[in-house]
Specification:
With 297 residues, this protein is mainly β. It has one helix and 26 strands.
């Protein structure tokens, strides 16, 4: 049996400041290879140092295996995804909303699953979206979140479906171009996971090389034998193991004929798997802050 309901939750929160009252045109700012221009979205450049208990209108979705919490007020992100059988969070559950000013329009938070479009960490990632609950004829339930983005006037929806007897969360993305002009877009999900010395990245067996952003650097995978992110791996280092990565590092893979990627916890014998058709979603990426002083901070 699948059920969904709305519930007010209290989350310790560091509030953001007021948006800049004047439009800000960031033509000269490059954000991860894309334009930093976010007009007409307002830009926020301050965050409070004071923590307050803030009420959010959450939507819960649950079946016999999984319990999920969605926050429409924070971009429609999945804030919590819990495995009821192994009694573990299979995405990182951040109990505090404490943004940093690293987003396209300012505030950005880690944890859960963030949905990004039409470019990178989307400008509206910290803004409210519409949400509705839909009961389906087969007994499944779908929670839809959607918005009309202001930069290119496209419409984007994410549908979260739980089915009876299924131990996975199904996510459907739908984008609509509401203009007469061709539009480009990115669409990607950004799940966060908790890591330790036993955590291992899992790519398909045909992934034998990984790239930095924009192919600025390339490494063999999973055994690195050269220099990657200015780190000397010439001795032959298994860079699929988190414990071996000392600096912030990304792995981007292309041309895989498989439909999955994920991460595995060798200690708990659990993990997370992301499955999507490689015909529609060809790219695969993983990122770590690194198992060093900076990453642990």
């Amino acid at each position: 049996m699948v059920k969904a309901w709305k519930e007010q939750v209290t989350i310790p929160t560091y509030e953001v400041g007021a948006p800049e009252k004047n439009p800000i045109f960031l033509e000269n700012r490059v954000y991860q290879g894309s334009s930093g221009v976010v007009y007409p979205y307002p830009v926020i450049e301050s965050i409070s140092d004071e923590r307050v208990d803030k009420e959010y209108n959450a939507i819960y979705l649950e079946n016999e295996y999984i319990k999920v919490m969605i926050l429409p007020e924070l971009g429609g992100r999945v804030q919590m995804a819990y495995d009821k059988i192994k009694q573990r969070h299979f995405v990182y559950y951040n109990h505090v909303v404490k943004p940093a000013l690293v987003g396209l329009a300012g505030p950005w938070i880690s944890g859960g699953i963030e949905f990004n479009w039409p470019q990178h960490h989307r400008p509206s990632t910290y803004m409210p979206v519409d949400a509705t609950i839909e009961e389906n004829a087969d007994g499944s339930v779908t929670v839809w979140v959607n918005e009309m983005e202001r930069m290119f006037h496209q419409k984007g929806l994410a549908g979260f479906t739980l089915r009876p007897g299924c131990a996975y969360l199904e996510i459907q993305g739908r984008l609509s171009n509401r203009t007469p002009l061709p539009q480009t877009f990115l669409w990607w999900a950004n799940p966060a996971v908790e890591v330790n010395d036993h955590y291992q990245s899992v790519f398909p067996p045909d992934v034998n090389a990984v790239f930095d952003h924009g192919k600025r650097a390339v490494s063999s995978f999973p055994i690195a034998t050269g220099t990657y992110y200015k780190m000397d791996y010439s001795a032959g280092v298994d860079i699929s193991n988190y414990k071996n990565i000392k600096v912030p590092t990304s792995y981007m893979a292309v041309n895989s004929k498989y439909d999955f990627e994920g991460g595995y916890e060798n200690d708990t014998k659990g993990g997370m798997l992301h499955v999507a058709s490689h015909h529609f979603s060809p790219g695969k990426k993983q990122w770590t802050w690194g198992n060093g002083d900076f990453g642990r901070a």
